[in-house]
Amino acid sequence: MKMINTNLSPVDPNAVSQIKLVDGSLMPQAAMGTFHSDNPDLMKGMEDIVIEAIRLGYRHIDCATAYQNEEIVGQAIEKSIKSGLVKREDLFILSKLWNKNMKPDEVIPALKKTLIDLKVDYLDMYVVHWPWSNFHEPGSSGDALNDHAVPYIHEDFMEVWDKMTELKRLGLVKNIGTSNQTRKTIDLLLRDTDDFNRPTYNQMELHPLFQQKEFVQFLIENKIAPSGYMSLGSPRRPGRDRFPEHQSDMQHHIIQSISAQTGLTPPQVCLAWAHQRENNQVGYVSMAERSDWIKSNLLGATQNVLSNEQFQLIDGNNTEENPGINTNNRLIWGQVFLWPEAKYLGHPRYVLWDDHQIFETKSDYDEFRKAFKDFYKVWKSTVYNLDFTS
Ligand SMILES: NC(=O)c1ccc[n+]([C@@H]2O[C@H](COP(=O)([O-])OP(=O)(O)OC[C@H]3O[C@@H](n4cnc5c(N)ncnc54)[C@H](OP(=O)(O)O)[C@@H]3O)[C@@H](O)[C@H]2O)c1
Q1: Which residues face 123 on adjacent strands?
Q2: For this structure, is 201 an active site residue?
């Protein structure tokens, strides 16, 4: 099957809904994702895919150092600009600081490397990909743990954030934001920042079966633009992010019945909800490699196609009769980022998102770790038949 079909007419970028950031700049609501789902074939094709997305009208490109393809995406951006397809100032280019570089003296060099790879001299948005420095080597198995992983330590995060604000002062990035934060970590960040330094954007997992409604509303109230990734439920996500309890958004019976009623495909229904929620004030990132899907995903941000009733079937209307279809079906658990103590406390996957372990300072965490070691020694020597392997 031909993936790229340059005969397909483009979407008018001016018809795409825009979100106004707190500094007044506009961010196209729909972003083209560039994560290759660890798929080497997709990695090779990414240059053509990004050029095609730009040709079809995408102006917001979602990149990250962690996707290991910024040079390829950069070639696409450079070619699109050189060929006159788009001007740099018409693009909204976002990238993410990878966990491995979450050390104060590595933030500026990491951004400069991203600028070189993407072949641009500034970013529209630079976000901290995860709230801590924990990382796993590319290709690690789904249960690999890094012994040096740590929980959220606010003091560490703020040292990195100070450098993010320096990038903004230097004019290398127009706006700074976060990703994969929780309500509590955003509370701490807002507590310790002012108007210039505050985050203006947070990227998080959002799709019809995982709506995070209260957190999204909190972000909007605090002038942080929320944007959702895995907007279609990421059917081709890597094996490490698949769990037996997962449900498929596109196959949900309400999504299917709205699809049958409207003639929209199930992915179009998911994106129509993403576009309409909170009065079009939530961004969405989706990824596709076929021209027709790239185009239809962008079209999702051009008009409200669901009736109020259809929208509310997905979103709910605050009544017991219609709670909506959110099932808290989180796809990204980030279990590879867990730190040693978390392994022994509760269900490891939940510890990460439930804010069980958040520390203000490094010395708070040192104290906790010492107490935990002492406790663990006593635990191991006194509890009968203790089995840590399960
Ligand atoms: N901040 C973070 O931590 C984070 C985490 C995950 C993702 N992201 C970003 O979010 C982006 C999107 O996430 P994702 O790619 O995992 O999930 P997604 O957009 O929900 O799903 C993409 C998949 O859906 C299929 N698809 C796309 N459009 C379709 C359509 N119209 N009809 C039928 N199937 C369609 C694609 O298939 P084909 O591949 O066959 O075209 C692709 O495999 C990533 O690329 C990345 O930029 C960020």
Answers
A1: 173
A2: no
**Options 3.20.20.100, 3.30.565.10, 3.40.50.10490, 3.40.50.620; CATH of 13-362:** 3.20.20.100
The whole-model pTM stands at 0.96
Q: What angle do CA 277, 355, 213 make, to 5 degrees?
A: 10
Q: 287 C-alpha vs ligand 1 centroid, how far in Å?
A: 4
Residue 69 to residue 104: CA distance in whole angstroms: 24
Instruction: Read off the pLDDT of residues 135-163 as tens digits, 9 standing for 90 and up.
Output: 877 667 767 778 889 999 999 999 999 99
Nearest CA to ligand 1 atom 26: 288
Q: Which pairing describes strands 18-20 and 26-28: parallel, antiparallel, or unpaired?
A: antiparallel
Q: Does residue 111 contact residue 83 with C-beta atoms inside 8 Å?
A: no
| 181, HSE (Cβ side, Cα atoms, 13 Å) | 27
What totals of helices (H) and strands (E) does the chain contain, helices first? Answer: 13, 12
| pLDDT at res. 1 | 46
Question: Which residue's CA is the closest to the ligand 1 atom numbered 33?
Answer: 267
Tens of pLDDT, residue by residue over 344-376, are: 776 567 778 888 889 999 999 999 999 999 998
Asked whether residue 279 carries a pLDDT value surpassing 90, the answer given is yes
Residue 69 in contact with ligand 1 by CB distance below 6 A: no
